[in-house]
Design goal:
By secondary structure, this protein is α/β, with parallel strands linked by helices. 35% of the residues lie in helices and 25% in strands. The strands form four sheets. Strands 7, 8, 9, 10, 11 and 12 form a six-stranded mixed β-sheet that branches. The structure holds glutamine.
């Protein structure tokens, strides 16, 4: 009898709000660079994806405990994360910047003395803030979603936030109400991740698909669509 070929479905965790990489559009569909990349790669390589917008930290935790197959969420490839996760070839680059409310007088790290800084749980921005908080004398508050981080700064509860330059640059351009006051530091690369030693076929397909999208112009097209810039 002829064999019916059914594409395998992988469950992919992602962030809730991290534009231009992942966010819900007005039809409540998850769009952005990461969403278009994973969907295009799946199409190219012949697999299906079930996207789960769990939030950044929850997605990484779910991946580490084997509840989902992969994560694409503007996640920086770090040596620490490589202890528990395997990463794809990099697909984007970003550093960390400090942002303050548009009308704020805070303009550098020294101005943070005695103030509160907002970050998102489990991110490189949070790691960076915690690594310098004693030196500059500020307190750190964490939120699970970038929206709440930015709102805490806009309402004045927090004097500043630390987050990815690629995301805050986009935010500034799209009317987030914040301004960036430092140069990017801790430059890193974004990668798709699977649990260490697991889902190696998925990882290989991601890399192969990404290479094809880079070759056929689709990658450039996606980057241009969301950033207005050439890749
Ligand atoms: N790139 C940052 C990190 O990996 C932030 C990711 C995110 O907030 N989705 O920690």
């Amino acid at each position: 009898a002829p064999q019916v070929h059914a594409d395998k479905t992988y469950t992919i965790g992602t962030d809730v709000t991290f534009p231009p990489f992942v966010y819900a559009n007005s039809n409540n569909k998850y769009v952005g660079i990461d969403m278009e990349l994973i969907r295009s790669i799946a199409k190219e390589e012949g697999f299906k994806v079930n996207i789960k917008p769990l939030g950044f930290n929850a997605a990484v935790q779910s991946l580490s405990s084997g509840q989902i197959d992969g994560v694409i969420a503007g996640m920086t490839i770090t040596n620490e994360r490589k202890q528990t996760l395997d990463f794809s070839t990099p697909y984007y680059e970003s550093g960390i910047v400090m942002a303050v409310a548009k009308n704020s007088k805070i303009s550098n790290l020294k101005d943070l003395k005695g103030k509160t800084v907002a970050v998102k749980t489990g991110t490189q921005g949070a790691t960076y803030a915690n690594s310098i908080k004693n030196k500059y004398g500020f307190k750190v508050v964490t939120f699970d979603d970038s929206d709440n981080v930015y709102n805490d700064v806009k309402t004045g509860n927090s004097a500043a936030c630390f987050d990815d330059s690629a995301v805050l640059n986009y935010g500034v351009k799209t009317g987030l109400g914040l301004k960036i006051v430092t140069k990017p530091t801790d430059i890193g690369q974004y990668g798709f991740a699977v649990k260490k030693g697991q889902n190696q076929k998925l990882l290989k397909m991601f890399n192969a698909g990404l290479a094809k999208l880079k070759k056929n112009g689709k990658y450039d097209q996606i980057i241009k669509k969301y950033t207005g810039k050439k890749a």
